[in-house]
Amino acid sequence: DKVVPKSFTIYRDTVAPIATISSPEKDESFITKPQTITGTISDVGSGVDSVSYTVKKGEETKASGYATITGASWTANNIDIGEGEGTFTLTISANDKLNNGDTKEATFYVDTNNPTLSETGVGTGGATTNTQFTLSGWIRETNELNSNAAVTISADKDGFSNIELAANNLT
């Protein structure tokens, strides 16, 4: 009888990997859509197996896939989140080789169009000879973040003296 030795490695790993999102940062705003997402990953147990991502706008999934892991970093390139502006949520799920998981989330904003300003106080033919005047109107935003805010601008012959936004959430 011949004996053939065989060795096995047994892992006991009950701790999930630790993942972070570096880009986009939480609450970051973009004027162009981000096409690369990045972060860090570490695992002291069985080792990192995968990092998956999902980008949603509301309940609609705009992009999903797996990131490339290089050392302690992960990256996903050429992310296409489609057309439109607004609020997006990036969720990553990191798993080690024994399927312990960590999930992280970052909300980011895309605003590719300038807001519009419409005046209602002076009018288009509203030339004034007064030394001071007030212009009022609305700022409208198309990006679904902050859609309307009233604005009042006061000026005199020396320049602007007051600009007041009626909505404190206009960004």
Secondary structure: elements and pairs:
Elements: E1 18-23, E2 28-30, E3 37-42, E4 48-57, E5 60-66, E6 68-70, E7 73-76, E8 86-96, E9 101-110, E10 116-119, E11 132-140, E12 148-156, E13 159-165
Parallel strand pairs: 2-9
Antiparallel strand pairs: 1-3, 3-7, 4-5, 4-8, 6-7, 8-9, 10-11, 11-12, 12-13
Question: What report would you give on this structure?
Answer:
With 171 residues, the chain is mostly beta strands. 0% of the residues lie in helices and 52% in strands. The protein has no helices and 13 strands. It has strands at 18-23, 28-30, 37-42, 48-57, 60-66, 68-70, 73-76, 86-96, 101-110, 116-119, 132-140, 148-156, 159-165. The strands form three sheets. A five-stranded mixed beta sheet has the order 2-9-8-4-5, with no helix packed on it. It has a four-stranded antiparallel beta sheet with strand order 1-3-7-6, with no helix packed on it. A hairpin with a 2-residue loop joins strand 12 and strand 13.
Task: Name some characteristics of this structure.
171 residues; mainly beta; 5-stranded mixed beta sheet; 4-stranded antiparallel beta sheet; 0% helix
Beta percentage is over 45%
Distance between the termini: 80 Å
Provide a count of the helices: 0
The parts where pLDDT drops under 50 for at least 5 residues are none
Strand order of the largest sheet: 2-9-8-4-5
| Structure classification | mainly beta
Major beta-sheet overview = 5 strands, mixed
Helix content: under 10%
Q: In total, how many beta strands?
A: 13
Globular, elongated, flat, extended or rod-shaped: what is the shape? Answer: rod-shaped
The overall pLDDT, averaged over residues, is 81
Can you write the helix and strand succession as a string?
Answer: EEEEEEEEEEEEE
